[in-house]
Fold this protein.
Amino acid sequence: MSPQPLEPSRWRFDAEAWPVDTDCVVMGGDLEPGTVIEAYRHGAFPMPLDGELAWWSPVRRGILHPDELRVSRSMRRSARSFALTYDTDFAGVVRACADPSRPGAWISPEIEAAYLRLHQLGWAHSVETRAADGTLVGGVYGLQVGRLFAGESMFHHARDASKVALMGLVELQHGGLIDVQWNTSHLASLGVVEVDRDEYLRRIAELVDRPGPSWPNPD
């Protein structure tokens, strides 16, 4: 499904006005589809802070070049035991990622509802990892804005299930860029690197206006 046009946002995200030494750059606003997409186009994303809506643009941004994903032998073995689907259970992936029992859980009901709406409009997508019996055991979701895929979260209920979902995502993103927000030692082991904010903004400026990849139609 091609993304549907959005109503223009009354919010503008101006990097020149952001603090240069903090990751949180704007407070307030709304989660209307046009606002969220406008934010991603300019390098920001929403995440609650102390119960308030905040917008973030990390000083050091984690990114993955699709051609540089490190696939271990364990991941390849695991991939043979799973099946991948695309956009067949976006809500299920978000729900699993939002599980409040997970360490660092941050996805509020408002955030969840906003991304479900963006999925309905064709902007948000999920890759689902399924066991042999079809059970959802892992996945990743995020926004496709041109050739930028802004990864929001991923989960696994079976070993390597989220990594296999990432492998499936990478297959769609050649010639583009995957944003993972912040790097971690786990993500670094998969090929994620850090760039500073200015470099990230420079890289996405052209990508967000390019035609995005074709996502497989849900079965």
